[in-house]
Amino acid sequence: MEDNKLSYFLFGLGMGVAIGVLFAPKSGQETREILRSKASEGREYLRRKGEEVRESTSDFVSRGREAYQSGKGQVSAAMEAAKQAYRQEIAQSQKEAPESAGGA
Fold it and tell me: Is the distance from CB of 56 to CB of 2 less than 8 angstroms?
């Protein structure tokens, strides 16, 4: 969606400059100054948009890392709990095995 806005902006800028050059009753020097000014405005716009995209991407990546680390910690905790439950079950079954063998 942002790409479409940028494309439309650049297209509009180019068309405006082209029409302005064709119909402007200004001298060549004045026209060149206008073109430089418009090109500078376009560069500034692109720089700002690039910075916005960079910041939003950085935020997105940071949130993704945090979610990954959180999920990783939860999985590790769940795995450790499962191991502990398994060890307890094995220990319990070993305690019960000699009692049932000795009682028969």
Answer: no
Rounded distance, CA 35 to CA 65, Å? 45
CB within 8 A of 20, min separation 6: which ones? 34
Residue type, 89: E
CA 91, 96, 102, 104 torsion-angle sign:
negative
Q: Is the pTM of this model over 0.90?
A: no
- Can you give the residue range of the structural domain that contains 80? 2-102
Q: How many domains does the chain have?
A: 1
How far apart, in Å, are the Cα atoms of 47 and each of 9, 32, 35, 63? Answer: 14, 22, 18, 24
List per-block mean pLDDT (blocks of 10 residues) for the chain, which spans 104 residues.
Answer: 77 81 73 83 89 87 84 83 88 75 52
- Return the structure tokens found at 59: 């935020």
